């Protein structure tokens, strides 16, 4: 199980739940995936995280570290 953050938000415009991964926001266009339901969006978000981690590892790229988001 990964420890990366996911923000899941409803989009009235798209009629979908959109997923943003804050730790990847400097490297990947956000939102990075979506789903018709919250559960589907989370599942898709987890798949995207794994896909990027595997690709970055294969390329010997710097991998962003999981972090706790600071909420004011």
Helix content: 25-40%
Q: By helix and strand content, what is the structural category?
A: alpha+beta
Q: So what's the overall shape?
A: globular
Number of discrete helical segments: 1
Low-pLDDT parts are: none
Q: How far apart, in Å, are the first and last alpha carbons?
A: 27 Å
- Helix/strand order: EEEH
Could you provide a short overview of the structure?
The termini are far apart. Strands 1-2-3 form a 3-stranded antiparallel beta sheet, with helices on one face.
Structure overview:
The chain has 72 residues and is α+β, with helices and mostly antiparallel strands. It has one domain (7-58). Helices cover 29% and strands 18% of the residues. It has one helix and three strands. The N and C termini lie far apart (27 Å). The relative contact order is 0.22.
Features of this protein?
single chain; 72 residues; alpha+beta; 3-stranded antiparallel beta sheet; 1 helix; 3 strands; 29% helix; 18% strand; globular
Q: What is the strand and helix layout of this fold?
A:
Blueprint: E1 7-11, E2 16-20, E3 33-35, H1 38-58
Antiparallel strand pairs: 1-2, 2-3
